[in-house]
Specification:
mainly alpha, Cytochrome Bc1 Complex, Chain D, domain 2, single chain
């Protein structure tokens, strides 16, 4: 009987406690599910779903953490993988040779630039294709390249990349030696700079990663500075920006000279 009287709506203390608890729960819900999401400029419904997931023990969002949610913030729309480029046939190379006629003024008739633009002859097809796509989508802004990419289909860009990869390119140096800069051989781990050779070496064949050997010194110097100050942002996972931001002016100059001499 005493228990029934205690937990009865006729008991003003019990009723008051229930109402107070309900008010606290409602205020907490409004703060956690409405006010905080709005304060962080997130959609209330999306944040509500994420909050429920976290409360259930699933701290991650329902989408893959490896993908950017906002496509406008992606460094590139290209999905890089080992099989991103099919083996080029003669028809693809021939179509690429025809399309490349518009590129000769800057990149040379045989893919070797006479004007300080990057050499494309012998460049990995996946690397050239990714840059062409990034120029077209605006992920790598260029007042010269972007207009040239207008109207090109995805297959056109693949054909261009296959053609330039087909062209022969002289290699001045095959192996690293004692004169190779330490940043190329070992990087600078204490400054979060990986070894350049771990990605930009002919023998590595890392998808969509350009080979730097023999590229014009002025071009290499310019691109390293662009990565360092963040004006070039189409590197996947900001790998180049994270490394280049720690480079000194002297190191930028040294790296550009080294790769240009190879």
């Amino acid at each position: 009987m005493n228990g029934e009287r205690l937990f009865s709506l006729k008991n003003r203390w019990f009723t008051g406690s229930v109402l107070a608890l309900a008010c606290i729960a409602i205020v907490a819900a409004l703060i956690g599910f409405v006010w905080i999401p709005r304060a962080h400029a997130r959609e209330a419904i999306a944040s509500l779903w994420e909050s429920i997931c976290r409360a259930a023990g699933a701290p991650g969002a329902y989408y893959s953490a490896g993908l950017d949610v906002d496509t406008g913030n992606r460094s590139s729309d290209v999905i890089v993988m080992a099989q991103m480029m099919a083996t080029a046939d003669s028809a693809s190379i021939g179509r690429g040779a025809t399309l490349a006629l518009r590129c000769t003024m800057c990149h040379g008739a045989r893919g070797m630039s006479p004007a300080g633009s990057p050499h494309l002859a012998g460049q990995a097809a996946s690397a050239t294709y990714k840059q062409l796509r990034d120029f077209q989508t605006g992920h790598r802004p260029s007042a010269i390249m972007q207009p040239l990419m207008d109207g090109l289909s995805d297959q056109d860009m693949r054909d261009l990349a296959s053609y330039y990869a087909y062209l022969p390119r002289e290699r001045l140096t095959d192996r690293m030696n004692r004169s190779t800069p330490r940043l190329v051989r070992n990087g600078a781990p204490m400054r979060n700079i990986g070894a350049c050779a771990s990605c930009h070496t002919l023998e590595i064949h890392k998808p969509a990663t350009p080979w730097l050997d023999g590229l014009p010194e002025s071009y290499l110097h310019q691109q390293l500075l662009a990565f360092r100050d963040g004006t070039r942002r189409n590197d996947l996972h900001a790998q180049m920006r994270n490394a280049a931001r720690h480079l000194t002016d002297q190191e930028v100059k040294e790296l550009a000279q080294y790769y240009a001499s190879r």
